[in-house]
Design a protein that fits this description.
The chain contains eleven helices and 13 strands. The protein is α/β, with parallel strands linked by helices. A seven-stranded parallel beta sheet has the order 3-2-1-4-5-6-11, with helices on both faces. A two-stranded parallel ribbon has the order 7-10. A two-stranded parallel sheet has the order 8-13. Its EC number is 4.2.1.47.
Length: 323
């Protein structure tokens, strides 16, 4: 029998990769999409799956539309990827971030509890919940200390998922994903900001790149690898929480070097430090320990940072050349 899946946030980076993965596995895929005047489906077109998805109008801030989406899709699996996911914007929009990234999770869990309790649920948690790190390498037992409205809102979403799992025996799992990137990443995120700028500078369309704390360290992986971990979580007999990461941390500075080297440039000649891009509360280091995901799910990342950045550079060079 064909499985049915509902993906919130399907028009985002992770949503597009996950939709392709599930369609390739024979799922019927539904996507919850908030009505927008701008084109929000370009990533799905890039993945060649736009026409294969059943779209349902809805908004995570509106409990009734979330309930309707659950009832209409009759999902075997729900993947909650919807979020205001840009950390910097969460200081400018703390209430919106709290509603979408926190309360919206409750709307979805409550809809599942009431109308589809057999459904397996995935919550997209984040390494930003660790914030001011309490251990050199963070795993599922590391205490949380979020340092942004985004991290705080996501922590609510994480704990309400645990609460519904324990209170109502739902098959509800959270993936605590560390930074994961791809050519589909939004231009506002630092990896795409760097690769886009390197491509533009190489082609004479930009002069320099302004960044904040380039000595911040992150654990970067490939979004296409990470959606496989999401799917694997919902195939387990027992729901649980899993850190998904590479186990390698790299500075933004080193990431810049890789990107600019790929087009024969020295990043030092073009990257400028702008204090305006520093966070109100900095997160200096994030480094995940994916041992549990490797042991229980049999998951390992396939793509290293050099390969990932070169993949993104190639895509941005082609895109910028066409502009």
């Amino acid at each position: 029998m064909t499985k049915s899946a509902l993906i919130t946030g399907i028009t985002g980076q992770d949503g597009a990769y996950l939709a392709k993965l599930l369609l390739d596995k024979g799922y019927k895929v539904h996507g919850l999409v908030a009505r927008r005047s701008s084109d929000s489906r370009w990533r799905l077109r890039e993945m060649g799956v736009e026409a294969d998805i059943v779209y349902l109008d809805g908004d995570m801030a509106d409990a009734c539309s979330v309930q309707r989406a659950v009832i209409k899709s009759a999902p075997d699996e729900v993947y909650n990827l919807a979020a205001q996911s840009f950390v910097a914007a969460s200081w400018d929009q703390p209430v919106t971030t709290g509603i979408v990234d926190g309360l919206g999770v409750t709307h979805l869990l409550e809809a599942i509890r009431q109308f589809s309790p057999h459904t397996r649920f995935y919550q997209a948690s984040t390494s930003e919940m660790f914030g001011l790190i309490q251990a050199e390498q963070q795993d599922e037992n590391t205490p949380f200390y979020p340092r942004s409205p985004y991290g705080v809102a996501k922590l609510y979403g994480h704990w309400i998922t645990v609460n519904y799992r324990e209170s109502f025996n739902l098959h509800a799992s959270s993936g605590i994903l560390f930074n994961h990137e791809s050519p589909l990443r939004g231009i506002e995120f630092v990896t795409r900001k760097v690769t886009d700028a390197a491509a533009r500078i190489k082609q004479g369309k930009q002069q320099e790149l302004a960044l904040g704390n380039i000595d911040a360290k992150r654990d970067w992986g490939f979004a296409g690898d990470y959606v496989e971990a999401m799917w694997l979580m919902l195939q387990q007999d027992k729901p649980d929480d899993f850190v998904v990461a590479t186990g390698v941390t790299t500075t933004v500075r080193e990431m810049c070097r890789i990107a600019f080297d790929h087009v024969g440039l020295n990043y030092r000649d073009y990257v400028k430090i702008d204090p305006a891009f520093f966070r109100p509360a900095e997160v200096e280091v994030l480094l995940g320990n994916p041992a549990k995901a490797q042991r229980v799910l049999g998951w390992k990342p396939k793509t290293d940072l050099d390969t990932l950045i070169r993949m993104m550079m190639d895509a941005d060079m082609k895109r910028v050349a066409k502009e």
